[in-house]
Write a structure and sequence with these properties.
3 helices; elongated; 96 residues; mainly alpha
Amino acid sequence: MPKFAFILIRSLIYLAQVYTSLIVITALLSWFVSPMSRLMQFLRSLTSPVIEPFRALTQRFIPTNVPIDISPLLAYFALELIISLLSRLLYQLPVY
């Protein structure tokens, strides 16, 4: 069982790291690439399931006239927190 748990947790960490990279790439490219380009539409389709809940949260608490969308940053921090917690859990597993 610990070997399966190790593989599962390690896979979740890797997936979260890939997702954080996609969020950063999407946010940086949004400054330079048209939002109508195929690349941006593809990246947004990948990252929007994680970013949208944070966008809804920020729209509730931050006035709508603020020109910067901080929801990708919040999603990034949340994923980094999950990575940190999973890493701690990973190193507490017994080794066989």
